[in-house]
């Protein structure tokens, strides 16, 4: 086990204050080895949160190996270096450290927290995890059984059934068209070599984003970055191209014996980089963005009691953008709820929003933004996410201005372009009454 | 607006934040300033300071939950929680949430067996605004028949979504109902459907006028505030509300009789994908001034089933490989007797009977072998370190205070708890295990897939 013990100069490119968060300053730190991280230095509590993200995620699965990246990620906590699974877990317990691992369609992330007084040992354990994972066959078989148990549950869960059907309809043969957790057959056949292949595809420096918050200096962070990450390969697996989005007005019903149907709906969305994104973001807040007083909540829940909750959300993924929503309603109420959602989709497309709604949404979104920066782990995650989205370090300063800059005319022009009832598709799982599939 | 059904999903127990060898830093606990006082009308106030960001959370906790409901009205505590978002004398229906949102904040509420709580999280210079609205709805709601009819549909949809659509939730509901012979913990927080369907305006208002009063409430403020400023505001908005002189002196709870028969639950549902076995035992909760037994039970649950280094995981998942998942749960913060629970998800081709036998054999072997002192020390070290990490999230500290204070504990009990956990010995853990893991108070449940019925 090699330890890098060099003193590393770090260059501070920029320091910015968050709006309304005078004490939080984001620095960009580049290590001697050339690895960049965003840091919020805060010595008030003696621990540090680290967020590492690798772009690519489960979309890096090779053909026929669906679920490999997910299973590989689950195996990261099952031993590294000389330590087998339980010894590794005990070492982590002894080291005042926690590590979380997650894989989604676009990224694999590692979220770590460790106390300052044994940072060196915790970083060494992280280094082993990243650079010397064991992927022992017995651990592989044990975690595979857990994944398969989860997949079996998904087969019977109306929400998962709806998600899988929706993805397949929208994205077809693209990796986005299937679940990153794989299926019973593909996961059963994954070999130890497949796990190593997935590991090599995922972990590389050309797709790495780092956020760090807490009790660490830029110098110490520079050293940590080189220790942890410099020996990773320069390049990883090829990330697939963009997915085409197929969505057309209609309803697909999947029969399932349950008292309450689950509905997913969606139409094509827009990219994070689209100049209309901020207008769309505000429009969605008004339509179904999660407040109790959104149009959808008001019409479907508060006035008619048709659901416990209804939401809509922009989903700008790396390789495709959709605009989605979801709710659940008793089988006898589903038809009416679908009608109400459709009519709200038509209304916002044809009438746009009012000046008052726009102002309320702006006040909410700009007021809520600083409230996100609460806690070292949360902030580290936000810092990594901002880099993945290609946002500049200045974004935290300008973001609320961009929200406020959207005028009513702009918002309503975007509403007329964006909302497209002729491409609004529903997938419903259950036994809804008075409604049937259109295909 | 949620019914916290008290029970826990199948999940890995939250990874305990770990620790340092030989760490002895009781000072950690004191680094987060907690201030408490009581208003003249009897309302308790807790302030947890964190000045790193200009954010505040206000919570008002009522010592009233589903276990305080009248017989025949299961779900009324949670129903009322929903109705508190309707109109008051000065606020339109929905105006409180809309005002919080228009100020960039968010708000919600939750109900459990022993409490109902309401909260807002907002920029710290808006504390007065949310205090004014929260104090208003403590005594001034104005409900209409229309509110009742629509909101009752909403809570029925919530039950559909949380319980009726999820066989695991239905199984837990049945297990709980069988565990308690006489206590209201046996009724689901969200309510039984047939009783929810009949809840009316009078039921809601009767619960409201009985329990919603300052002398039955705790105000918990966390974030960027100073206690003097909170005190002034609290006196202005809450201090002027008269105490309810008719508030019951003691929580009206029907006690459990001695439990003398091991019970079994066989739950079948066509939607079950992954069968599992669950075993619960009636267990003592944290009592004010006497938390030692609960502390020992908590450490027992961690030793037996607190993650991949635990005794159950080692025996069932690593050694014998008869389970894909195993865990033990114990939550001692409860007004009355709680449960100690095991869960085993068998490996493929292992029957529930075999899994249950393996569980019993493993518990017996654990008691026979005695406590692994190194493991016990690791768990205690993790608990000490968790106090450092907890300072990063004062809302969690606020939540801990709210739950404990509505569950019969005092501020002194809450502050003594970490030290009590540290002082538990191996012998005490074995003793409490032998006392509590006792067949006569147990319920064993099998959740299986219903056979397809030929059409």
Automatic annotation (TrEMBL), chain A:
The keyword Protein transport does not apply. It comes from the Bacteria. Residues 40-178 form the Peptidase M16 N-terminal domain. GO terms for biological process: proteolysis. Gene3D superfamilies: Metalloenzyme, LuxS/M16 peptidase-like. This is Zinc protease. The keyword Cytoplasm does not apply. GO terms for molecular function: metal ion binding; peptidase activity. Residues 190-364 form the Peptidase M16 C-terminal domain. InterPro entries: Metalloenz_LuxS/M16, MPP/UQCRC_Complex, Pept_M16_N, Peptidase_M16_C. PANTHER family: METALLOPROTEASE (PTHR11851), PROCESSING PROTEASE (PTHR11851:SF224). Keywords: Hydrolase, Protease, Signal. Residues 1-22 form the signal peptide.
Automatic annotation (TrEMBL), chain B:
One of its GO terms (molecular function) is metalloendopeptidase activity. Its cofactor is Zn(2+). Residues 1-29 form the signal peptide. This is Zinc protease. Residues 199-383 form the Peptidase M16 C-terminal domain. It holds the Pfam family Peptidase_M16. GO terms for biological process: proteolysis. Belongs to the peptidase M16 family. Keywords: Hydrolase, Metal-binding, Metalloprotease, Protease, Signal, Zinc. It comes from Epibacterium ulvae. Residues 45-190 form the Peptidase M16 N-terminal domain. InterPro entries: Metalloenz_LuxS/M16 (IPR011249), Pept_M16_N (IPR011765), Pept_M16_Zn_BS (IPR001431), Peptidase_M16 (IPR050626), Peptidase_M16_C (IPR007863). The keyword Glycoprotein does not apply. The keyword Mitochondrion does not apply.
């Amino acid at each position: 086990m090699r330890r890098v013990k060099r003193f590393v100069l770090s260059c501070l490119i920029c320091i910015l204050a968050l709006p309304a968060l005078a004490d939080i300053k984001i620095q960009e730190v580049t290590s001697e080895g050339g690895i960049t991280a965003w840091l919020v230095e805060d010595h008030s509590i003696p621990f540090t949160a680290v967020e590492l993200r690798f772009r690519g995620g489960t979309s890096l699965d090779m053909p026929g190996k669906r679920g490999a990246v997910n299973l590989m990620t689950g195996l990261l906590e099952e031993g590294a270096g000389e330590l087998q699974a339980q010894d590794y877990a005990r070492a982590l317990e002894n080291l005042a450290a926690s590590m979380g691992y997650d894989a989604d369609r676009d990224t694999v992330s590692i979220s770590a927290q460790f106390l300052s007084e044994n940072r060196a040992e915790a970083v060494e354990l992280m280094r082993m995890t990243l650079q010397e994972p064991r992927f022992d066959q017995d651990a592989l078989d044990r975690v595979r059984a857990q994944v398969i148990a989860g997949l079996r549950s998904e087969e019977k869960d109306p929400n998962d059934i709806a998600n899988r059907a929706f993805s397949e309809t929208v994205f077809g043969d693209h990796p986005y068209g299937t679940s990153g957790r794989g299926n019973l057959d593909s996961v059963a056949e994954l070999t130890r070599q497949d796990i190593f292949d997935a590991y090599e595809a995922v972990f590389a420096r050309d797709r790495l984003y780092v956020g760090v918050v807490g009790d660490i200096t830029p110098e110490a962070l520079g050293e940590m970055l080189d220790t942890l990450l410099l020996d990773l390969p320069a390049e990883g697996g090829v990330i697939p191209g963009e997915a085409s989005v197929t969505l057309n007005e209609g309803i697909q019903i999947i029969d399932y014996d349950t008292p309450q149907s689950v509905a997913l709906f969606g139409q094509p969305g827009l990219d994070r980089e689209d100049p209309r994104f901020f207008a769309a973001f505000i429009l969605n807040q008004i339509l179904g963005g999660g407040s109790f007083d959104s149009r959808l909540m008001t019409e479907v829940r508060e006035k008619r009691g048709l659901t416990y909750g209804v939401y809509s959300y922009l989903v700008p993924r790396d390789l495709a953008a959709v605009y989605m929503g979801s709710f659940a309603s008793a089988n006898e109420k589903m038809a009416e709820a679908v009608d109400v959602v459709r009519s709200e989709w038509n209304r916002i497309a044809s009438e746009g929003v009012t000046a008052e709604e726009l102002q309320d949404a702006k006040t909410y979104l700009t007021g809520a933004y600083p409230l996100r920066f609460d806690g070292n782990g949360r902030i580290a995650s936000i810092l990594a996410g901002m880099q993945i989205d290609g946002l500049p370090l200045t974004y935290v300063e300008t973001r609320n201005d961009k929200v406020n800059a959207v005028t009513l005319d702009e918002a309503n022009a975007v509403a007329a372009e964006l909302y497209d009832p002729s491409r609004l598709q529903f997938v419903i799982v259950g036994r809804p009454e008075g409604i049937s599939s259109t295909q | 607006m949620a019914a916290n059904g008290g029970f826990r999903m199948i999940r890995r127990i939250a990874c305990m934040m770990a620790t340092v060898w030989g760490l002895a830093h009781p000072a950690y606990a004191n680094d987060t300033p907690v201030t408490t006082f009581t208003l003249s009308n009897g309302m308790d106030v807790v302030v947890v300071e964190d000045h790193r960001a200009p954010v505040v959370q206000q919570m008002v906790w009522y010592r009233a939950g589903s276990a305080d409901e009248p017989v025949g009205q299961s779900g009324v505590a949670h129903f009322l929680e929903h109705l508190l978002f309707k109109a008051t004398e000065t606020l339109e229906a929905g105006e409180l949430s809309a005002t919080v949102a228009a100020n960039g904040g968010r708000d919600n509420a939750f109900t459990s067996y022993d409490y109902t709580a309401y909260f807002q999280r907002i920029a710290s210079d808006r504390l007065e605004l949310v205090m004014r609205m929260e104090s208003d709805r403590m005594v001034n709601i104005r409900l209409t028949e229309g509110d009742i009819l629509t909101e009752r549909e909403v809570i029925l949809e919530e039950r559909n979504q949380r319980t009726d659509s999820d066989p695991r939730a239905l199984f837990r509901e049945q297990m709980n109902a069988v565990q308690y012979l006489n206590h209201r913990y046996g009724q689901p927080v969200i309510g039984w459907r047939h009783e929810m369907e009949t809840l009316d305006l009078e039921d809601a208002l009767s619960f409201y006028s009985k329990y919603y009063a300052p002398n039955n409430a705790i105000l918990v403020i966390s974030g960027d505030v100073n206690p003097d400023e909170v005190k002034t505001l609290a006196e202005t908005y809450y201090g002027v509300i008269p105490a309810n002189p008719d508030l019951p002196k003691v929580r009206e709870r029907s006690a459990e009789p001695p439990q003398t028969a091991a019970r079994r639950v066989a739950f079948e549902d066509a939607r079950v994908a992954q069968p599992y076995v669950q075993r619960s035992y009636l267990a003592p909760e944290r009592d004010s001034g006497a938390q030692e037994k609960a502390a020992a039970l908590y450490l027992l649950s961690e030793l037996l089933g607190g993650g991949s280094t635990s005794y159950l995981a080692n025996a069932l998942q690593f050694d014998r490989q008869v389970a894909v998942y195993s865990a033990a749960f114990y939550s001692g913060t409860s007004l009355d007797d709680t449960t100690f629970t095991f869960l085993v998800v068998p490996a493929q081709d292992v029957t529930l009977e075999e899994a249950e036998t393996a569980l019993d054999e493993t518990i017996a072997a654990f008691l026979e072998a005695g406590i692994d002192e190194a493991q016990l020390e690791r768990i205690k070290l993790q608990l000490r370190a968790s106090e450092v990490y907890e300072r990063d999230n004062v809302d969690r500290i606020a939540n801990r205070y709210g739950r404990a204070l509505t569950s019969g504990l005092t501020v002194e009990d809450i502050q003594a708890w970490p030290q009590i956990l540290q002082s538990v010995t191996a012998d005490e853990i074995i003793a409490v295990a032998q006392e509590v893991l006792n067949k006569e108070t147990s319920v064993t449940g099998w959740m299986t897939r219903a056979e397809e019925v030929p059409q």
